[in-house]
Amino acid sequence: MKYVPHATDVLDAHDPVRTDADQDRLSVRRLLQLVRSYRMLIAGIMAAAVLFGIGYIRTAEHRYTASMVIGPVSDTNQLVGGMDFSATTGSGLLSALSAPKVTPLATMKQLLHSELVARELMQDVSIRDRFFPGLWDEAGQRWRRPQGLMPSRKGSIKTMLGLPAWVQPSPGLLQQALVSAIQVTDERETGFTTLSYEDRDPAFAVHLLNVATNTADHIMRDRTRNEASRRIAFISTRLETDGKLSVDHRQVLIRFLASEEQKLIGVAAGTPMAADTIIPPTASPQITSPNWKAVLAASVIFGTFLSLAGMVLLPGRIVPGPNRWIVPPVFAALGLMLGIMLGYLAG
User: Fold this and answer.
1) Are residues 184 and 262 in the same domain?
2) Three-state SS for 68?
3) Which of 283, 312, 335 delimits the end of a domain?
4) Alpha-carbon dihedral angle through residues 304, 306, 309, 313, given to the nearest 10 degrees
5) What is the phi/psi pair of residue 149, to 5°?
């Protein structure tokens, strides 16, 4: 019977009677002999791993990334309609004393991941159908449970774990999806913020960023308008009805009134409330997911480790004799099938 080297034979090179140089040459020679003996197995495993990665890349859902860059708006106490309220009314000092610690840009970024924005986005048909496909009954104007074998099995598993089999879509569920979907990256050096979203449809990704940022801005605009209107009504009533106000007190209220009226001017002018758009939403023409370079690199690494494991664990060739040529095609076909299956499940 012909001798077939085993991976543990390399350990025999560590013989104390041999010099270090002899041991190194012997180890390398036996390692090469081992690789040559298992070449069919190694070729099959590496081909399977690479085809596994190729199958996954070709069948997985291709996704594109849309991004936009926003920055903080200019100070609301600067020139509005050609008039500097800070210089004429002293509202600049009052605004500095009463300015909130949270900036408008920070508020907007929080709103993008809030249920307030999600509730408005639920009214957009394209967004609703993308996050909850096939669950809205247009005729009945209500949500319907998903049908089919896979949803039924998932529901059974959740029931066994003590979880509800199905949760009706709601703004809260959409909010949870938006938290992970819309990525917010702050640039410390410039003070700008990059918003990005990944989707299989680049046009939809751009649409979502536009709608989400506009919705957050409208919420802040409505909030500013309502709060300023209430303050103006209160201050105006106080100035008209309270005859006991001192001259200094009346001047302070007039300055506050001018500051609130300035806010209404900004709201009416349609200027951004929290963020200026530095770069509008644009989608990358290149596929960003899956990353084919990373997938192929991972496939090669996985194939290498699996080949080493096979050389250590298997005492001889998988298919001895003249039929060993079948090993690489079999492994390659198996890897391609697994890659296609994984890509289908991921998509």
Assistant:
1) yes
2) strand
3) 283
4) -140
5) -70, -45
Start-end of H helices in the chain: 20-37, 39-59, 85-89, 91-98, 104-112, 115-121, 125-131, 149-160, 171-181, 202-241, 247-269, 292-313, 327-346
In a domain, 151, yes or no: no
Q: Could you say which DSSP state residue 13 is in?
A: G
Written as six digits, the tokens of 109 are 């970024």
Instruction: Read off the tokens for 225.
Output: 């308008």
CB 133 within 8 A of CB 143: no
| Domain at 180, CATH number | 3.30.1890
CA–CA gap between residue 131 and residue 145 (Å, rounded): 15
Shared domain for 80 and 223, answered yes or no, is: yes
124 and 83, same domain (yes or no): yes
Query: What DSSP character marks residue 188?
Result: T
User: What residues have CB less than 8 Å from 71, skipping those under 6 apart?
Assistant: 105, 190, 191, 192, 193, 275, 276, 278
For residue 27, being part of any structural domain is answered with no
Q: Which domain holds residue 122?
A: 64-132+169-283
Over its length of 347 residues, how does the chain's per-residue pLDDT go in tens digits?
A: 444 444 444 444 444 545 555 454 546 676 677 667 777 777 777 787 888 888 888 877 889 999 999 998 865 433 333 334 343 344 444 444 444 467 888 889 999 999 999 999 999 999 999 999 888 888 888 888 877 777 667 767 777 777 777 788 899 999 999 999 999 999 888 889 999 999 999 999 999 999 999 999 999 999 989 998 999 998 888 888 877 778 888 888 889 888 888 888 888 888 888 888 999 999 988 888 888 788 888 777 777 777 766 666 655 444 444 444 444 555 556 555 655 555 554 44
